[in-house]
Amino acid sequence: MLYGAIEAGGTKFVCAVGTKDLEVIERIQIPTTTPIETMNNVIDFFKKHQEQLAAIGIGSFGPIDIHPNSATYGYITSTPKKAWQNFDFIGYLNKNLKELPIVFTTDVNAAAYGEYVAGNGKGRSTIVYYTIGTGIGGGALQNGTFVEGFSHPEMGHMLVRRHPVDTFKGVCPYHSDCLEGMASGPAIEQRTGMKGQELSVADPSWELEAYYIAQCVYNTTLLFSPDVIIFGGGVMKQAHLRERVQEALVGLMNHYVDYPAFENYVLPPKLGDDAGIIGCLALALEKSEKDIF
Ligand code: ADP
Ligand code: ZN
C-alpha cells in the first residue's frame, strides 16, 4: 500500500506518495495558480498510483472547513486568494480520483504532525508549530490530537505589543499590526524595502522581528505550557534570530513562569521543509489504519 500527501501552499503545492515507514518514493512540486489548473496536475500525479493508494493526507493553506458535519467540509473558505475562495478541495479529489479516506487539516497542523511523529516533537505530549514565511500560521497538538474547536486555530494573527521604535503600520489586510502583519516575510520587506534573505544580519529591524517572535513564544508558553515550540518557514532560516528571541523572551517573561531551557524548548523543525509532507503521509497512514480496524 502507498499513502498520499498534499502540502497545499499559497505559492506551491507539493504532492508525494510514500510507504508506511513514511519514506517518500515520489514527489512533485506544482505552482499554485488557478484551482482547476493546479488540481488537475495533482490528480494526474495521484492517478499513476491510484491502485495502491490507501488514503491521502492534506495540509492546506486556509482558512479551511475542517468539520466533517459541515456543508462546506473540505473547502478552502475565506482565503484572500480570490480564485481559491470556497473551493471544494475534497470534493474535487473525490470526483476525479477513486474515493479514498482523506484527512484534511491546515498546513501548519500537518507540519506539527510531521514533527510529532518523526521530528523534534517526537515523544512529547504537547507541541506547537509555527511557520514564519509569506504568512504566519500555528498549529498545536496535544497527545496526538489537534487543538481545535469551532474551527482550527489562527495563531498567526495573535495581537502583539508594538515595539516602541517601530512605526511600521503592518501588512495584515484584516488587522494591520497583528503578528503576521508585523513579522511575516512581507512585513520585513515592506518595513525595510528589502527581502529578509537580502537584509544584513546587522540590520536593526531584526531586533523588532525578534521582539515579535518572542511575544509569540511568550503567548504560546502561557496559553499551552507546551513541551516544545517549533518554528519553521523562510524567515526562521536567519539563525541569529534565535539568540535575539531568547533575550527578548527573558525580558517579557520577567521570571513569571519557569519554562524549559530555551535550547530544548524553541526549536527548528528537525524535518526541515519536509515536516508538512511527512505529516500528511503520517496522517494518511493513521487514517487508513483507523478505517480498517
Ligand atoms: P511560503 O511561506 O510561501 O511557503 P517561505 O516559508 O519560504 O515560503 O516564506 C517566504 C518568505 O520568507 C518571503 O517573504 C521571503 O522573503 C522570506 N524568506 C525566505 N528565505 C528567507 C531567509 N533566508 N531569510 C529571511 N527571510 C526569508
Ligand atoms: Zn492579522
Give the tally of structural domains.
Answer: 2
Give the CATH superfamily of the largest domain: ATPase, nucleotide binding domain
Overall pLDDT, averaged? 97
Specify the number of helices. 9
Radius of gyration: 19 Å
Overview of the structural elements:
Its cofactor is Mg(2+). Keywords: ATP-binding, Carbohydrate metabolism, Kinase, Magnesium, Metal-binding, Nucleotide-binding, Transferase, Zinc. It comes from Enterococcus lactis. Its EC number is 2.7.1.4. The protein starts with a strand and ends with a helix. With 293 residues, the chain is of the alpha/beta class. It has helices spanning 35-47, 89-96, 107-118, 179-183, 185-192, 205-224, 241-253, 262-265, 275-292, and strands at 2-8, 12-18, 24-31, 53-60, 75-76, 87-88, 102-106, 126-132, 136-142, 145-146, 228-232, 266-267. A five-stranded mixed beta sheet has the order 3-2-1-4-7. A five-stranded mixed beta sheet has the order 10-9-8-11-12, with helices on both faces. Helices cover 34% and strands 21% of the residues. It folds into two domains: 1-108 and 271-287, ATPase, nucleotide binding domain (Nucleotidyltransferase, domain 5, 2-Layer Sandwich); 122-265, ATPase, nucleotide binding domain (Nucleotidyltransferase, domain 5, 2-Layer Sandwich), CATH 3.30.420.
